[in-house]
Write a structure and sequence with these properties.
Elements (H helix, E strand, L loop, with lengths): L2 E5 L9 H12 L7 E4 L18 H10 L4 E4 L10 H6 L2 E3 L4 E5 L2 E5 L10 H10 L2 H8 L3 H20 L3 H4 L3 H11 L3 E4 L6 E4 L5 E4 L9 E5 L3 E5 L4
Helix pairs in contact: 1-2
Length: 238
């Protein structure tokens, strides 16, 4: 029976070997039971372009390539790795999908998001998001030398950490009204996303559901679906 798996927010980092090990184990074992694997963004802590050899992630790339022999892999870029392009997707043996992406399971229409678009109270971040997702900004950024891009991203990450410290959780979390309105705007019954690192199952009127994936801290966090079981969220915090 076909199984769908959904993960996000692994935030792979050369300084967090524990997360790399957990994800590699997951891909080599648990993920092989699934017919489809959807990675909903922030697989990487940072991504500065497809020309980065990213040697530190080679173990994960190898695991994804081997998994692809059995499991169809999809990748939806997040706010940390929105510069992942076709070359890197090919290295992961994954198909790039947009945000939002729509699928249908058990006659229910489902929207897959990274989740940052729902955090509408953080006006400053939404303005930044619009800027860096533009073709003009990305073309200009990717034209810079690799080392310069690394310095820029390091500075941006430091600025982001400082900015987050000055914001309340209500500001950086999902805006509940935006979440409710998204069901009608997207014409869906279910929304699945990550980004907030707050794994949960939210229930709304008209049997609508919002599944939030957790980050890998480094324990696995994943959502599965099978026709005989429906959705099951696996996370030690839920």
């Amino acid at each position: 029976m076909d199984e769908y798996l959904f993960i996000s927010d692994c935030h792979l980092d050369a300084n967090r070997q524990d997360i790399t090990d957990q994800l590699s184990t997951f891909l080599q074992n648990r993920a092989r039971k699934a017919r489809f694997l959807y990675i909903l963004g922030d697989l990487f802590e940072t991504w500065i372009g497809d020309d980065d050899p990213a040697v530190c992630y080679s173990v994960v790339f190898d695991a994804l390539q081997k998994l692809a022999d059995k499991t169809k892999i999809f990748f939806l870029p997040g706010n940390r790795d929105f510069l992942v392009g076709e070359r890197s997707a090919e290295k992961m043996s994954a198909s790039l999908i947009g945000d939002p992406c729509f699928i249908t399971l058990d006659q229910q229409r489902i929207a897959l998001l990274h989740g940052d678009s729902l955090c509408t109270d953080d006006v400053e971040y939404q303005q930044f998001r619009e800027m860096v997702r533009s073709h003009e900004w990305q073309s200009e950024f990717l034209a810079k030398p690799l080392n310069e891009r690394k310095l820029i991203v390091t500075e941006l990450r430091q600025q982001s950490k400082v900015a987050i410290q000055d914001k309340s959780m209500d500001v950086i979390e999902v805006n509940q009204m935006s979440a409710v309105e998204s069901f009608d705007e997207l014409n869906v019954d279910i929304i699945i996303h990550g980004h907030t690192h707050q794994p949960a199952i939210h229930r709304y009127e008209r049997n609508r559901m919002r599944y939030v994936l957790g980050d890998w801290n480094p324990q696995p966090s994943f959502l599965s679906w099978r026709a005989d079981r429906g959705f099951e969220l696996t996370d030690l915090r839920v």
